[in-house]
Design goal:
By secondary structure, the chain is mainly alpha-helical. It is built from ten helices and three strands; from the N terminus they run E-H-H-H-E-E-H-H-H-H-H-H-H. The protein has a three-stranded antiparallel sheet.
């Protein structure tokens, strides 16, 4: 039920300023360029269908993007916006889903104690836009529309594509900025978040399977559930962080 925000929290400041390696600069530029494709393509075909639902999903995605939890033992965070991004992908058109994802990326990056560099905002926003667009293509062009018996399957497929399209670019930019192997970064920082994605996918699939649940009124209890997960995980993560020194001492004593 999480969208990881490792890039903003993990990469050190000297990796995100003018000292950013040329390869990383080119990669950020490529990610930004690709994000223009769904916006332009969606804009050319855009027709307003359900403005109230669009605005409701936008508000829910932005709100839950602010619910960030620090991952135990890491300088990384995750937020609980995935169900709302998946609902936007399933229920809105390409342009609207892309804009909801972009707004979520902005909400995740902005509003912290320190003002983030422009390249951070650009990369995070464009990465979420690309992930949402890739997931949109899978969901809407795989025969899932109108077939409730298989909607859960294609929701899972779309969520898997979103997960990969979201985390692989982040691991790549961290690797290019720090000199680490992208595969190791991806494994260390992202693989353990997969259960959270499974949970978020399940919530979205339930809502999509019962079409009557996809409305602005139903989003209110879903946001409440997301907040409950956020608070529970915050307490759990804090306890894990506090117990880490004790576990390290115990492990050392065991040797």
């Amino acid at each position: 039920m999480a969208r990881t925000n490792e890039y903003r929290e993990t990469v050190q400041r000297n990796h995100m300023t003018r000292s950013l390696p040329k390869s990383a600069q080119l990669f950020v530029g490529a990610v930004a360029a690709v994000s223009l494709v769904p916006v332009i393509a969606g804009g050319l075909q855009w027709q307003a269908q359900n403005p109230l639902l669009t605005l409701s999903l936008l508000a829910a995605a932005v709100l839950t993007s602010k619910m960030k939890v620090k991952l135990p033992g890491l300088t990384s965070t995750m937020s609980v916006n995935l169900p709302f991004l998946l609902l936007a992908i399933a229920e809105l058109n390409l342009l609207e889903a892309s804009l909801v994802a972009a707004a979520a990326g902005l909400a995740q990056t902005l509003g912290g104690e320190n003002r983030p560099e422009f390249v951070k905002v650009l990369f995070n926003t464009c990465t979420l836009t690309n992930a949402a667009a890739a997931s949109y293509v899978v969901f809407h062009h795989a025969g899932s529309e109108g077939k409730l018996t298989i909607v859960a399957l294609w929701t899972a497929a779309a969520a898997a594509v979103y997960f990969l399209a979201n985390t692989i670019p982040v691991a790549t930019i961290i690797a290019l900025s720090s000199g680490q192997k992208a595969s190791k970064v991806w494994s260390d920082f992202f693989m353990w978040t997969f259960p959270c994605y499974v949970l978020g996918t399940g919530v979205a699939a339930i809502a999509m399977s019962a079409q009557s649940l996809v409305n602005w009124q139903a989003l209110l209890p879903m946001v409440a559930v997301a907040y409950g997960v956020y608070r529970s995980y915050t307490m759990y993560a804090s306890r894990m962080e506090a117990e880490a020194p004790v576990r390290a001492m115990a492990a050392g004593a065991g040797h």
